[in-house]
């Protein structure tokens, strides 16, 4: 159940990232983003959080802040099949729409599984499923 | 809730594209607007720009229509000595609007609008699925 919850939260955040890409599909010099795949290792079963604002090191004695770009839960789009439009925009609308559909289907799977496990619990409790 | 933020971002895209559509329709409507006095400048084509800015509430980069700039390219001229806006040589300045380019731009705006709308629909469906858990 917890794993499913994490997955659902991940899909929620991904939907936000994808809608950000689509909304900025005509913004000059915009680079598309995507979430890194959810990792079910015990140490990282936390939902990928939104990027934080990084700290600037003003003195050598200060602690180094983690810049938002260092956040492993976010990754910039990249790869060989990559197109840049003349205005510097790097969002591929078709790709984003496919990703959005994929995200939606995966989310649906997760919610269905969640529902199923709920009904299993109900059966175990002796109630009608 | 992240889904609401997704909707907000997509809405910003919808707004920006409809604003772009407004500028395009203005250009097309004024494709033949000449000046009134001899030698006067006609309508100058407008170019919409997009800017991405960080929305603290949605915690994401939303898009907005930036400044509407003027196209600085040269006007077209046509020889029409009888026209009220004709100069001494009989030439009338016509707007630097190219209907074909505007139509292509319009198509693009339409597609981007549809894409944003699809995101809203997809997000809505996901919210619906979440609510279905409660119902089961």
Automatic annotation (TrEMBL), chain A:
GO terms for biological process: bacterial-type flagellum-dependent cell motility. Its main location: other. It is found in: Bacterial flagellum basal body. Keywords: Bacterial flagellum, Cell projection, Cilium, Flagellum. InterPro entries: FlgB. Residues 62-87 are annotated as: Disordered. One of its GO terms (cellular component) is bacterial-type flagellum basal body, rod. NCBIfam families: FlgB (TIGR01396), PRK06004.1 (NF004654). The basal body constitutes a major portion of the flagellar organelle and consists of a number of rings mounted on a central rod. Belongs to the flagella basal body rod proteins family. Structural component of flagellum, the bacterial motility apparatus. Part of the rod structure of flagellar basal body. This is Flagellar basal body rod protein FlgB.
UniProtKB/TrEMBL annotation, chain B:
GO terms for cellular component: bacterial-type flagellum basal body, rod. Its main location: other. Coiled coil: none annotated. GO terms for biological process: bacterial-type flagellum-dependent swarming motility. It holds the Pfam family Flg_bbr_C. PROSITE patterns: FLAGELLA_BB_ROD (PS00588). Residues 7-35 form the Flagellar basal body rod protein N-terminal domain. It is found in: Bacterial flagellum basal body. The keyword Plastid does not apply. Residues 88-132 form the Flagellar basal-body/hook protein C-terminal domain. NCBIfam families: FlgC. This is Flagellar basal-body rod protein FlgC.
């Amino acid at each position: 159940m917890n794993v499913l919850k994490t997955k659902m939260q991940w899909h929620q955040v991904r939907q936000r990232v994808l809608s950000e890409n689509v909304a900025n599909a005509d913004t000059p010099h915009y680079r598309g983003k995507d979430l890194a795949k959810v990792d079910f290792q015990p140490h990282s079963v936390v939902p990928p959080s939104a990027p934080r604002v990084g700290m600037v090191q003003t003195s050598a004695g200060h602690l180094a802040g983690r810049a938002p770009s260092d956040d492993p839960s976010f990754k910039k789009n990249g790869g060989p099949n990559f197109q840049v439009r003349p205005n510097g925009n790097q969002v591929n609308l078709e790709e984003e729409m496919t990703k959005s559909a994929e995200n939606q289907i995966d989310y649906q799977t997760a919610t269905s599984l969640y529902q199923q496990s709920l009904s299993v619990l109900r059966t175990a409790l002796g109630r009608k499923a | 809730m992240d889904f609401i933020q997704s909707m907000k971002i997509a809405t910003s895209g919808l707004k920006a594209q409809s604003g772009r559509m407004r500028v395009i329709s203005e250009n097309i409507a004024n494709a033949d607007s000449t000046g009134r006095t001899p030698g006067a400048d006609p309508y100058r084509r407008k170019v919409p720009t997009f800017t991405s800015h960080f929305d603290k509430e949605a915690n994401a980069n939303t898009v907005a229509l930036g400044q509407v700039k003027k196209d600085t390219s040269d006007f077209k001229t046509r020889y029409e000595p009888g026209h009220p806006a004709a100069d001494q040589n009989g030439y009338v300045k016509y707007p630097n609007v190219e209907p074909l380019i505007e139509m292509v731009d319009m198509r693009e705006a339409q597609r981007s609008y549809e894409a944003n709308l699809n995101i809203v629909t997809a997000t809505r469906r996901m919210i619906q699925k979440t609510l279905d858990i409660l119902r089961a």
